[in-house]
Amino acid sequence: MLFNSIDFAVFLPIVFVLYWFVVNRNLQLQNFLIVAASLIFYGWWDWRFLSLILFSAVVDYLIGRKLSAEESPTTRKILLWVSILVNLGFLGFFKYYNFFLDNFMGAFSFFGYAIQANSLNIILPVGISFYTFQTLSYTIDVYRKKLTPTKDFIAFLAFVSFFPQLVAGPIERATNLLPQFFKERKFDYLKAVDGMRQILWGLFKKIVIADNCAEFANLIFNNSDDYRGSTLVIGAIFFTFQIYGDFSGYSDIAIGTSRLFGFDLKQNFAFPYFSRDMAEFWRRWHISLSTWFRDYVYIPLGGSHGGTWMKVRNTFIIFIVSGFWHGANWTFIVWGALNAVYFLPLLLRNKNRNNLDEIAQGRFFPSLKEISSILLTFGLTVFAWIFFRANSMGHAVSYIAEIFSGSLFTVPDFEGSGRAFRLFILVILFMLVEWRGREDQYAIETLGLQWKRPIRRALYFGIIILLFWFGQNEQQFIYFQF
Q: What is the pLDDT along the chain (482 residues), one digit of tens a residue?
C-alpha cells in the first residue's frame, strides 16, 4: 500500500478512528490493532510474504527471551548468530542470490570454464532490508545487555511490523520504539496537528518534487546515448532532487503518521544538501541506516581507532556494505566505495567532525565560505548519484564520459525542456523553504505558526492544491526496491 495512494487515504482514517475511539481505553487492544493494521498494510502488496516477517519476528522474540535467561557466553553467542543467519539468510536469498550466481558464473567464464546454472525468478519482498535490520538491532542489543527482552509478543510484533515505517524506514531501534508500546497513549491534538503538517510536507516532497523530477531524470538516464553532456548533467541534478524528495518525503510521512498514533520516531533526514563536507552529509542522510552501520558494524570493527590501515579498511567496509545494502548491482558497490573515497581524507586529517553545528546558525544568509563548501559537497554528491541511478557500470561510465567531453559546454536540448525549466524554478523555491526551516525537524514545522489562522490555512490549502496540480505523474517510492 503506497502512502500516495487512494487506498492509504481510506485506510489511515479507518485505523485512526478505531484506534482513538474504539480501543482507546485498552493498551493491549491498541497494540493488537496496530499489528492487524500493519499486516493488512503489508499484505495489501502481496499477502504471501507475511510469513517472512512473522517468522523473523517469532525467531527474534524467542531468541531474545532465551538470551535473557542464558548465562553461558558460548551459548549466547550461538543464539546471536542464529538470529543473524536467519535474518541475513532471508535477505541474502531474496536480494542477492541471482547477483552472486551471475558473478560466480561470470568469473569462471572469464577463465575459460563454462558453468551452467539457472537463476531464479525471485520477487524481492518489499521492506525486507528495513525490517530485518530492525529485528537484528533488537537481538544484538539484548545480547549486549542494553535492552531487557519483552515477554509481550503482540507488543514486539507491533514494533517489528509498525506500518508507518515498515517498508522504507526509518529503521527504528528497539531501545527507542519498543518501550513506547508499553506506555499509555492519550490523544494529543497538538501532536496530531504537527503530524499532519509533516505528512503534508512529505507528500509535497514526493508528489510535487520527486515525481516530477523523476519524469526528466528517467527520460535522460534511459536515453542517455541520445543526449550531450550538458543535458546529462541536468538529468543527474534532477535525479539528485528526485531521490531526496522521494526518500525524505517517505520518512516525513512515516514520522508524521506515527505521531497521529502517539509515537515518536527519530529524524531520518536533516537537510543533507546543505552539508559542508561529506562527513556532515552522511550524518544527515538516511540517519537511521548510517547510525545502524556505525553502531553494529563500524564500531565493532574498531571504528576510527587504531592505525591508518585500520581506519582505511573500516571506512571502505562500512561504505561498501552500505552501498551493497541498497541493491544487488556493482553500481551500488562503486557508489559506496566512491563515498568512502570522499570521506577518507576528512577522517585521516581528523576533520570529519568539524561541522557538527547547524550551518549559518541564527543567520539567514550563509558566508561565501559556507556557500562554496555546500556547492562542492553537492557537486560530489551529484556525481556519486550517477552510479546509483545508472543501470550498469557500463552505463555509468558512458554517462560520465559524455559529461566530461566537449558537449558539456553545449546548450541542453531535450523533450519538455521548457517544463523542466519551470520545475527547476520550483525546486529552487522548495530548497529555500527547506533552508528557512533547516534548524527544525522538518521544513514547515514552525512555518506560519505565528501567522493569523486564515493566512496559515491558506498556506496549507496552497500546498494541497499543488499536490493535485502536479500529482499527475505518480511514481512508486524508490526505496521500495531496496
A: 778 788 888 999 999 999 999 998 899 999 999 999 999 998 887 788 888 899 999 999 999 999 988 889 999 999 999 999 999 988 888 777 666 666 556 555 655 565 665 656 667 777 888 889 999 999 999 999 999 999 999 999 999 999 999 887 799 999 999 999 999 999 999 999 999 999 999 999 999 999 999 999 999 999 999 999 999 999 999 999 999 999 999 999 999 999 999 999 999 999 999 999 999 999 999 999 999 999 999 999 888 787 888 889 999 999 999 998 888 789 999 999 999 999 999 999 989 889 988 898 888 899 999 999 999 999 999 999 999 999 999 999 999 999 999 899 998 888 888 899 999 999 999 999 999 999 999 999 999 888 898 999 999 999 999 998 887 666 677 766 65
CB atoms within 10 A of CB 115: 11
> 273 CB contacts (<8 Å, ≥6 apart)?
240, 244, 374, 378, 381, 431, 434
Distance separating alpha carbons of residues 55 and 43, to the nearest angstrom:
15
Report the C-alpha dihedral over residues 15, 18, 21, 25, rounded to 10 degrees: -110
From the number of C-beta atoms within 10 Å of its C-beta (0-12, 13-18, 19+), residue 101 rates as: middle
Q: Concatenate the DSSP letters of all residues of 162-209 into one string.
A: -GGGTTT-----HHHHGGGGGS-----HHHHHHHHHHHHHHHIIIIII
End-to-end CA distance of the chain: 16
Predicted TM-score (pTM) of the model is 0.92
Question: Distance between CA atoms of 115 and 460, rounded to whole angstroms?
Answer: 60
Cell of 271: 537537510
Phi, psi of 170 (to 5 degrees): -60, 150
**Residue spans per domain, the chain:** 6-184, 191-276+355-481
The verdict on whether 286 is a catalytic residue reads no
Give CA–CA dist 387/394, Å, rounded. Answer: 10
Closest CA to 272 of 298, 316, 241: 241
